[in-house]
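sry for the spam today, last one i promise. struct tokens for design, 223 residues
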């Protein structure tokens, strides 16, 4: 059985279970309704890469993974409203919107939800942050991918976040660049943005290990 990053290939698991049941005479697929066959047979062939993409070493869930989470948690209408709000308030979509609801990338085995639906009262904060990133940051760094956005208090504590982290109020994103860039060059560009536009837009800037960094628009400060 193939294992990717400690995760067994889901298709092989399903097929192994199905073969075991059929050989044992416990299941006859012809004897069950069509709607139940999906419990025994995969409808689509998924691989790890269909659900998770590595970006700068971080395992980032794909849009297909998000759609699966959304359907399982019955949040389609809520997510559609968030997207509509972003569109109506001038967010262009240069950053994958589903990833601003990603709690983080250390979710495997944590027992906590991969994504979080943000509180409606906080939507304007993320719209403002995304517009700032689109206007000032992406033109300097190139495409960016969020690796952490909205968080629950439980997840934030487990991740070592500050007790009053802006991730708790849908204002902050941790990002990594898609294009190859040195840590020194990235920090130089971000510092220049902070000095030129930070105070006016209440920019919070955090510089972390590697090429990961934090941006919010809920308080002018740097760390």
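last one done:
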């Amino acid at each position: 059985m193939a294992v990717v990053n400690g995760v067994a290939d889901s298709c092989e698991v399903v097929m192994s279970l199905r073969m075991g049941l059929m050989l044992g005479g416990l299941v006859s697929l012809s004897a069950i309704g069509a709607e139940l066959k999906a419990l025994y047979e995969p409808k689509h062939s998924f691989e790890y890469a269909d659900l998770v993409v590595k970006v700068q070493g971080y395992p980032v869930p794909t849009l297909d993974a998000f759609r699966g989470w959304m359907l399982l948690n019955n949040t389609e209408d809520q997510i559609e409203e968030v997207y509509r709000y972003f569109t109506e308030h001038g967010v262009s979509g240069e950053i994958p919107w589903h990833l601003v609801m990603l709690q983080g990338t250390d979710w495997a085995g944590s027992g906590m939800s991969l994504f979080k639906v943000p509180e409606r009262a906080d939507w304007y904060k993320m719209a403002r942050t995304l517009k700032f990133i689109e206007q000032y940051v992406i033109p300097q760094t190139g495409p960016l991918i969020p690796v952490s956005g909205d968080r629950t208090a439980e997840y934030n504590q487990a991740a070592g976040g500050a007790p009053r982290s802006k991730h708790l109020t849908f204002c902050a994103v941790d990002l990594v660049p898609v294009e190859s860039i040195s840590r020194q060059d990235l920090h130089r560009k971000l510092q220049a943005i902070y000095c030129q536009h930070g105070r006016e837009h209440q920019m919070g800037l955090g510089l972390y290990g590697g090429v990961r960094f934090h941006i919010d628009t809920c308080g002018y400060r740097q760390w």
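The chain has two domains: 1-46, 49-222. ok im logging off now
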